[in-house]
Amino acid sequence: MTPDQMRDASLLELFSLEAEAQTQVLSAGLLALERDPTQADHLESCMRAAHSLKGAARIVGVDAGVSVAHVMEDCLVSAQERRLVLRAEHIDALLQGTDLLTRIATPGNSVSAEDIEAYVGLLGHLLDPSATPAPAPTPTVMAPTIEIPAEPVRSEAPEPMSMEPLEPTARKKRTTEGGERVLRVTAGRLNSLLDLSSKSLVETQRLKPWLATMQRIRRQQSNGLRALEDLNVHLKDHALSLQAQEALNDARRLLAETQQMLAQKTAELDEFAWQASQRAQVLYDTALACRMRPFADVLAGQARMVRDLGRSLGKQVRLEIEGEKTQVDRDVLEKLEAPLTHLLRNAVDHGIEMPEQRVLAGKPAEGLIRLRASHQAGLLVLELADDGAGVDLERVRRTIVERGLSPEQTAASLSEEELLTFLFLPGFSLRDKVTEVSGRGVGLDAVQHMVRQLRGAVVLEQTAGAGSRFHLEVPLTLSVVRSLVVEVGGEAYAFPLAHIERMCDLAPQDIVQVEGRQHFWHEGRHVGLVAATQLLNRPVTPNNGQALKVVMIREREVIYGVAVERFIGERTLVVLPLDERLGKVQDISAGALLDDGSVVLIVDVEDLLRSVDKLLDTGRLERIARQNEAQVPRKRILVVDDSLTVRELERKLLLNRGYDVAVAVDGMDGWNALRSEDFDLLITDIDMPRMDGIELVSLLRRDNRLQSLPVMVVSYKDREEDRRRGLDAGADYYLAKASFHDDALLDAVVELIGGARA
C-alpha cells in the first residue's frame, strides 16, 4: 500500500468516526424538530452537522456522502430561512438521509448510485414539488415484525391488554445444554453467597502470614536444638551429676520431638492453606454472576422505535427517559429488556390515541410516554407512564363476561383495581383481531411473569382519559463490580470497568494544550487530561519524566483521561457500602477488600466527572508538568475547525512538517486558546458554531497582544466576495478547501512564518 493509500485509509476511518458523531446529532435534532420545526438551535445544529459531513466527505472523496449531505443541508437551510416549514414527510426524509449517511460511512457497506439518486430526487421533490416527481424511496418507517423467539427475554411484541405466556415452553427449559438442572436462587441469597465467598477468600489469604510465622518458629526451634547440642559437647569435659545429665537428655529429646511435630504440622498447614485458597477462589468465581451496567443499555434506539412505530400507526408519539445512568445488575437488565419493550410498544398501540382524538379531548396532538428509573431502598424502581386514554374499564368488564371469566353480576361489582388485574391473565386481550402489533394475547402476563422471576412486583394504575402508569419494583444487586485497581498518592482506588474506555501509557511530550487545558490525542479526538491526585485530594508524586499511567473514563459522550501513579491490576470486588453516617463521600461510591485484606475505595465515576466540570468552570484544574520537552523550540500553530476530519488532516500535515500544533473545535474555543497560550500562526475555518472565523479574526486584530499574529483562512467558500470578506477582516492568507492539497497548505504556512524551528 502506498503512503497516499495509507493516508486515504486513515482519513476514511476518521470520516467514519465523524459520521457516527454527526448522525447522532442529526437524529436527536430531527426528533426535536418534529415536535417544533421552528427551534432555531436544533435547526442550526442539524444544518452544521450536515455541512460538516459534506465537507468531510469531500475531503476524503466520498461523493455519495457529499450528495446526500448537500441536499439535506439545502433542506435545513431552507427551514432556517423560513422558506420551508418542516413537516412530517420532511422529517421522515431527513431521517432516511441520516440512515443513508450512516451506511455510506460504515466500512464494508455498499450503497448503489440508484439509491443515492432516488434519495436526492425525493428530497429535491419535497423542496420543490413542481419539479419532476421523485422515484419511490425505500420507506424508513416500517411496522416492526413480531415473532416469539427461543428465549423468554426476547419475546414477541408487548401488549398491555394481552396475556399469554411469554414462551409456552419456558418451564420445560430447566436444564443447560450439557443436561444439568437449573435452579432459581433469590437475589437476596445470591447477595449473601457473594458476600460470604468474598470474605472467605480474604480470610484464606490471612493464612499466609500465619504460615510464614510458623516457618520462622521452626527455624528458631532448629537453631535452639543445635545450640543445645553444642552445649552438650562442651559439657562432656565436665563432671555432671546424674540428674543434670538426665535433664539435658530430656531437653534434647523434647526439642527433637517438637521439631519433628512442628515440621509435620507446618507442612499440613501449608497444604491446607493452598487447598483452602483454591477452593475459596473457585467458590468466589462461581458465585460471581452479576456485573453492574447502566440502565441505558436496554434503551438503545427506543426513542426512535417509539417514534417509528407511532408513525406506522398514524400517531405522533415522543418518549422521554429519566435515570439512564442508574446502575442495575446485568441479569436484571437482561430480564427487563423484553418487558420494557412490551410496555413501550403497547403504550404506543393501546395507550396513545390518534391525533384527531387527542385534539378533540383537549390534548396536544403528540402523545408523551415517560420512562423513569431510580434506586429506592435497595430496589430498582421503574415508572412508565403515558398521557393516553387510559383503560376502557367497561370494555374490560364485557370481555371478562364474554370469555366466561366471571358472571355478569360479579363483573359489574368489580372495582377498578380488580378489573385491572384481569389484564395480567394469560391470553387476555382487548383486541378483536390480530395485527402486526397487537391481538395475540401476549403482553402484560409476560411482563408480570418476568418481574415475578426477579421476585419483584408490577402495578398498573390508570386515569380515564388521562393515561396509564406502570410501577415496577425489582431487587437491585449491588454486590460485585469488575474494576481496575490503581494507586493514587500511595493508596488504592478502583475504577469500575464499565466506565473505562481504555488504559494507556502517555509520554509527557504527547500532552498538548488546548483552550488552556491539557489534552492528548486518542483515535482522532483530543481527550482532556486531569490528575487523580487533585480529584482525590492525594499528595502529588513526581513522575521524573516517565510515561504517565492514564485511565480513560467515559460516561456516555463525556470522556477524560485520569493520570494515576500505578496500575495494580484488574479485580472483581465485592462492594461494601460505606457507613450511612458518612453521608455521600465525594467521588467515592463504596469500599471493598483486596485479596490481602487491604481496603480499596471504589470511585464514583459520575461524581468524579462532575468534580472535573466544577474544576473546569472555576479554572482550578491543575496542570500536569511535561518533562523532557524538546530543547529546540518549535513554532506553534493553532488550527480552528469544527470538522474533525479537516482538523485531523491539517494537524497531521503540520506535525509531519515539524510544527507544534494545537487544535480548537470552534471560534470560541480558539479565542480562549489564543488568550491563554502563545502561537506563531492561526489557521481557521469560517463557518463554525458559537463564533465563526470572521468574528475570531476581528477580535484578534483588535487585541493589542495578538493583532500582529499571522492568520490563514481555510474555507469551502471560494467566491471572490467570500475571499474579500476574509481578507478585509484581517486574514493574511485565504485558501479554498475546494482546491486544497498538501503542498498548498504547507507552502502557505512556510510563506507566512517560515520553517518549523525557531
UniProtKB/TrEMBL annotation:
Domain of life where this protein originates: Bacteria
Record's keyword terms, sorted: Kinase, Phosphoprotein, Transferase, Two-component regulatory system
Gene Ontology molecular function, alphabetical: kinase activity
Residues where 4-aspartylphosphate is found: D685
Catalytic reaction equation(s): ATP + protein L-histidine = ADP + protein N-phospho-L-histidine
Response regulatory domain ranges (all copies): 636-752
Histidine kinase domain span: 239-478
Region of interest (Disordered), residue spans: 155-177
Sequence ranges assigned to domain CheW-like in this UniProt record: 480-614
Kinase as UniProt keyword: yes
Gene3D superfamilies: 3.40.50.2300, Histidine kinase-like ATPase, C-terminal domain, HPT domain, SH3 Domains
Transmembrane recorded as keyword: no
Residues modified as Phosphohistidine: H51
Protein name as it appears in the record: histidine kinase
Species name: Pseudomonas agronomica
